[in-house]
């Protein structure tokens, strides 16, 4: 009997949707979740691929909302420009949706290059969107304005990463930043997209002041902004906790290698635990990796001694640490890497295990290690082995 390639049945998985919905079977119909139910039995006169998920945990594919997919960096001159990402870096990380962005360098890195890479990753099998812009203000767009970019370019869902409170920032005035947010908001509304502004937070003293002022003095809601690197130092972390308790969204960078407090390497999983303890609603928190971005490395004296490259793999690693080491409930942790980014970015078919949603699925083994990755119904990783490689990967 011929195997029907467009149907797949996952049997007996412990499903976190990300809410725990107990043991279920999941039927995949082409690129979509067809059905999530107990004991699905199909009577067919053709064979369908069955995946035995007994003893495994089934979760939505992770969403990474901040990745320098074509590379970034360059802050230590040309040789420090970081390399572009490869498909398997994303798959192995359990990530099935990424949002690409430009960072410090909006000159040798371009929007056309970013969009071409996003399309390439889509062709290779994952879902990929981008933000328009970079650190640079006024924002250098593709079509001439933020609204046009968001409305006319399918891949563009917002603006970013705009740098604030950072020595590398364009130092936008409050008026300039307000205009950016309002253009993004209108672009988003008119195209049914999120139209968010992804904000790079630096180490500067002003912290979130500009955002707080805009939210206080204009009609623009807090949810228009997603400030990232929110835990990069103690002061910013504390300000971010207050900001989030007032309704703001905050995003922690999992690749963060920065020293924290008394020279204690604080990890994202610990930041999540602290933020929750201090009363931040889990709904307001997300993680992203800053994959392929350049990360400054500091010595004991706090001096920058080199640059490292961010890794998408850190996204799941920190989520796993939060579950295992910090004992935060799985459902809460999963939320910050699945349903919260999906809601923030208005990716309505992502971040949730439910009939009708995209078949983006990760299976974890007993040790909470990534075992299988399915993106839009295609098995890209199986038994911890990459099944589909990027075009030029060996
Ligand atoms: C952070 C990306 C930083 C690039 O402050 O923002 O540099 O364009 O590649 N990275 N500028 C890293 C901290 C969060 C640790 C970026 C970088
Ligand atoms: Zn950044």
What are the main properties of this structure?
single chain, 394 residues, alpha/beta, Urease, subunit C, domain 1, TIM Barrel, 2 domains, globular, binds ligand FWO, binds zinc ion
Report on this structure.
The protein has helices spanning 87-91, 111-124, 146-152, 174-191, 209-217, 234-245, 268-277, 313-324, 330-337, 339-344, and strands spanning 3-16, 20-29, 32-37, 47-52, 57-60, 62-67, 95-100, 127-132, 156-164, 196-201, 225-228, 250-253, 259-260, 264-265, 285-288, 294-298, 304-309, 361-364, 370-375, 378-382, 385-386. The protein has 394 residues and is of the alpha/beta class. It folds into two domains: 3-59 and 352-386, Urease, subunit C, domain 1 (Roll), CATH 2.30.40; 61-344, Alpha-Beta Barrel (TIM Barrel). Helix 3 (146-152) packs parallel to helix 4 (174-191). The longest helix is centred in the middle third of the chain and has 18 residues, at 174-191. The two termini are 33 Å apart. Residues 259-264 have low confidence and may be disordered. The protein binds ligand FWO and zinc ion (ZN).
């Amino acid at each position: 009997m011929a195997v029907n390639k467009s149907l797949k049945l996952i049997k007996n998985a412990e499903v976190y949707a990300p809410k725990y919905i107990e043991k279920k079977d999941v039927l995949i119909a082409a690129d979509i979740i067809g059905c999530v139910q107990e004991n699905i039995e199909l009577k067919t006169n053709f064979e369908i691929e069955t995946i035995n998920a007994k003893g495994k945990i089934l979760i939505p594919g992770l969403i990474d909302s901040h990745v320098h997919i074509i590379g970034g960096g360059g802050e230590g001159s040309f040789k420090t420009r970081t390399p572009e990402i490869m498909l398997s870096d994303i798959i192995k990380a359990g990530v099935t949706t990424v949002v690409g962005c430009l960072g410090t360098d909006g000159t040798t890195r371009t929007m056309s290059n970013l969009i071409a890479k996003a399309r390439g990753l889509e062709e290779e099998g994952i879902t990929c969107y981008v933000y328009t812009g970079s650190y640079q203000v006024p924002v250098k767009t593709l079509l001439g304005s933020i609204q046009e970019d968001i409305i006319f370019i399918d891949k563009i869902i917002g603006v970013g990463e705009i740098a604030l409170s950072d020595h590398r920032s364009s130092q936008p005035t409050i008026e300039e930043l307000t205009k950016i947010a309002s253009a993004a908001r209108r672009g988003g509304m008119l195209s049914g997209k999120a139209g968010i502004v992804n904000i790079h937070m630096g180490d500067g003293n002003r912290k979130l002041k500009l955002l707080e002022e805009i939210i206080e003095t204009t009609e623009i809601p807090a949810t228009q902004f997603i400030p990232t690197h929110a835990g990069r130092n103690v002061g910013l972390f504390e300000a971010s906790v207050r900001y989030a308790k007032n309704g703001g969204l905050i995003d922690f960078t999992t690749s963060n290698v920065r020293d924290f407090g008394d020279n204690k390497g604080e990890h994202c999983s610990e930041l999540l635990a602290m933020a929750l303890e201090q009363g931040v609603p889990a709904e307001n928190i997300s993680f992203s990796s800053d994959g392929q971005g350049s990360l400054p490395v500091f010595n004991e004296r706090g001096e920058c001694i080199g640059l490292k490259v961010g890794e998408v793999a850190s996204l799941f690693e920190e989520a796993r640490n939060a579950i295992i080491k910090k004992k935060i409930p799985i459902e809460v942790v999963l939320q910050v890497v699945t349903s919260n980014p999906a809601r923030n970015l208005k990716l309505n078919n992502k971040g949730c295990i439910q009939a009708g949603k995209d078949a983006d699925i990760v299976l974890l083994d007993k040790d909470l290690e990534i075992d299988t990755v399915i993106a839009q119904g295609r098995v890209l990783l199986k038994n911890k082995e990459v099944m589909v490689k990027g075009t030029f990967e060996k």
